[in-house]
């Protein structure tokens, strides 16, 4: 699951980032409203964790922009604005849930899980290619009808390639799928996960395009 964290406070942002990653979520962290809108346009997220008091563009502006273009990603507003009017404004703008700072991290995680379950219950189409089937709603995978065990990062790398067979993904593109933005990553991280997937799916399932990246062939 990939989460967009929108939080301008460095201390809160780092703490929330660590908590979410400890639960094996992939997290992109941005610190202003303009960056949040750009990220939401560039990536597909399973949930947005959104502060309201942001520089450049406030959280309500970001939220209204998401809903205006019919983006149905679940949004959990996390803010210090605790007045009833603020809660009503956030929910009316399209938030799915609202939590007030300071909050307990266990409650935050519970609300995240609840929104992700609710989103999964709406159902997403299965992704199938060459005997591999991914169910984004349940995060279950099969190979020729048999259960296939994938780590969270193997899933994050395989899912976009299965969605677009024949498209070559560069290493930087795949690194962005594996980790949150601006994270330190090892120079051979993509190669390590591709190697693991090849062991599970077959040596030719993911092919190397020299000088360009990796591709799941159409045929």
UniProtKB/TrEMBL annotation:
<dbReference type="GO" id="GO:0032993">
    <property type="term" value="C:protein-DNA complex"/>
</dbReference>
<dbReference type="Pfam" id="PF00072">
    <property type="entry name" value="Response_reg"/>
</dbReference>
<dbReference type="GO" id="GO:0006355">
    <property type="term" value="P:regulation of DNA-templated transcription"/>
</dbReference>
<dbReference type="GO" id="GO:0000156">
    <property type="term" value="F:phosphorelay response regulator activity"/>
</dbReference>
<keyword id="KW-0804">Transcription</keyword>
<feature type="DNA-binding region" description="OmpR/PhoB-type">
    <location>
        <begin position="124"/>
        <end position="218"/>
    </location>
</feature>
<keyword id="KW-0238">DNA-binding</keyword>
<protein>
    <submittedName>
        <fullName>Response regulator</fullName>
    </submittedName>
</protein>
<dbReference type="InterPro" id="IPR001789">
    <property type="entry name" value="Sig_transdc_resp-reg_receiver"/>
</dbReference>
<feature type="modified residue" description="4-aspartylphosphate">
    <location>
        <position position="51"/>
    </location>
</feature>
<dbReference type="GO" id="GO:0000976">
    <property type="term" value="F:transcription cis-regulatory region binding"/>
</dbReference>
<keyword id="KW-0902">Two-component regulatory system</keyword>
<dbReference type="GO" id="GO:0005829">
    <property type="term" value="C:cytosol"/>
</dbReference>
<feature type="domain" description="Response regulatory">
    <location>
        <begin position="2"/>
        <end position="116"/>
    </location>
</feature>
<dbReference type="InterPro" id="IPR036388">
    <property type="entry name" value="WH-like_DNA-bd_sf"/>
</dbReference>
<dbReference type="InterPro" id="IPR001867">
    <property type="entry name" value="OmpR/PhoB-type_DNA-bd"/>
</dbReference>
<dbReference type="Pfam" id="PF00486">
    <property type="entry name" value="Trans_reg_C"/>
</dbReference>
<keyword id="KW-0805">Transcription regulation</keyword>
<keyword id="KW-0597">Phosphoprotein</keyword>
<dbReference type="InterPro" id="IPR011006">
    <property type="entry name" value="CheY-like_superfamily"/>
</dbReference>
<feature type="domain" description="OmpR/PhoB-type">
    <location>
        <begin position="124"/>
        <end position="218"/>
    </location>
</feature>
<dbReference type="InterPro" id="IPR039420">
    <property type="entry name" value="WalR-like"/>
</dbReference>
């Amino acid at each position: 699951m990939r989460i967009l964290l929108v939080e301008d406070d460095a201390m809160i942002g780092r703490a929330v980032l660590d908590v979410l990653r400890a639960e094996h979520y992939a997290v992109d962290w941005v610190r202003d409203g303009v960056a949040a809108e750009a990220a939401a346009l560039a990536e597909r997220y399973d949930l947005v964790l959104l502060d309201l008091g942001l520089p450049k563009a406030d959280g309500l502006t970001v939220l209204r922009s998401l809903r205006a273009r019919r983006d149905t990603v679940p949004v959990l507003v996390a803010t210090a604005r605790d007045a009833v009017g603020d809660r009503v404004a956030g929910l009316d703008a399209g938030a799915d849930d609202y939590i007030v700072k300071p909050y307990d991290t266990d409650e935050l995680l519970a609300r995240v899980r609840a929104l992700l379950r609710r989103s999964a219950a709406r159902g997403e189409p299965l992704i199938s290619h060459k005997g591999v089937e991914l169910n984004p709603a349940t995060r279950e995978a099969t190979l020729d009808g048999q259960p296939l065990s994938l780590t969270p990062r193997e899933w994050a790398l395989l899912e976009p390639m299965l969605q677009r067979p024949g498209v070559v993904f560069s290493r930087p593109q795949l690194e962005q799928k594996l980790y949150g933005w601006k994270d330190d990553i090892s120079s051979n991280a993509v190669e390590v996960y591709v190697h693991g997937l090849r062991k599970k799916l077959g040596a030719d399932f993911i092919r190397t395009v020299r000088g360009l990246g990796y591709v799941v062939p159409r045929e």
